[in-house]
Amino acid sequence: MSFDHRGSGLVLSMVVLTGLSLMALAIYHMARAIVRESVYEVRLIEAQSIAEAGLEHALSRLSRDPSWREGFSDKLFAGGSYTVTFSPDSPPWITSTGRSRPIFALGSASRMVRARLRKSSGRTGWEPGTWSIDLSPASKTAP
Question: pTM (2 decimals)?
Answer without folding.
Answer: 0.70
